[in-house]
Design goal:
Length: 95
């Protein structure tokens, strides 16, 4: 019998908080930490600290690596890598 919630084990293996998941969902957008904070109505420093926590929990050393690992784990949907980043964004940890 198929498991009712196939991601339940993955999410349990990577215990991200609701706030961290909100940040994680914005990482593929290439928005700066400031821009993410504006969209989520939180401070830039909150975004930075939560992003660093996400990186640590995913054992990632960069934003792009965190996105790659989160996608592989099914925590966020896959993105089209051939699409250019909006507003000339890059995959670094922009402020």
């Amino acid at each position: 019998m198929a498991e009712a919630y196939p991601l339940a084990g993955v999410i349990a293996a990577v215990p991200l908080t609701t706030a961290e998941l909100r940040i994680l969902r914005h990482l593929p957008t290439h928005l700066s930490h400031r821009e993410i904070g504006q969209r989520l109505n939180v401070s830039q420093s909150t975004v930075k600290s939560q992003a660093l926590s996400v990186y640590r929990k995913l054992d990632a050393s960069s934003r792009s690596q965190a996105v790659e690992r989160a996608t592989a784990l099914g925590l966020i949907p896959a993105i089209d890598a051939s699409s250019p980043a909006p507003n000339g964004g890059s995959d670094d940890d922009r402020d």
